[in-house]
Amino acid sequence: MIIAQQKKKNNIAEYILYMFQIEDMIRGYDFDLKKIETNIIHKFEQPVGIIEEMSVWYGDLIEKMQKEGLKKKNHLSFLNEIMDILFQLQEELLKDTDELKFIEQYKITKPNIDMLRTKSSYAGDNEIVLCMDGLYGFLLLRLQGKEVSQETVEGISSISSLIVMLTKKYHERH
Hints:
Helices cover about 75% and strands about 0% of the residues. By secondary structure, the chain is mostly helical.
């Protein structure tokens, strides 16, 4: 909760990736708040009031995920809404002749986005959802110590550069 609040304020892309991790963690603990309290929340050395807020926060997320049918995959609707806003911002920037650096980075990144689309099961139009899922998948592979091809590293690097630029533009406007 505390980390999420900081990330949302300072770096919306990191916030999204962090929340993807929280979603997976909730799934990993079988949507059981008691397990999350024992294994996660009580590990934080925080005052009782903060611990209670964290329990409520996780409980709310569990409830939302269950209501939205996210038992195995997909993302919370509020995260999809943020990614929709980022996608709309990307579309605006691509039409703005004053955003040449962003447009150039997009042109560099577009083949990697297309390759990611062919390798994924994502059928939607929102390239930001695709990019964030790709970045998260890459992060998971790295955390698991799995080998990643140089081509994948380069592709993810260009996607990451685009998301960094988009994130900066987002925070300038919000």
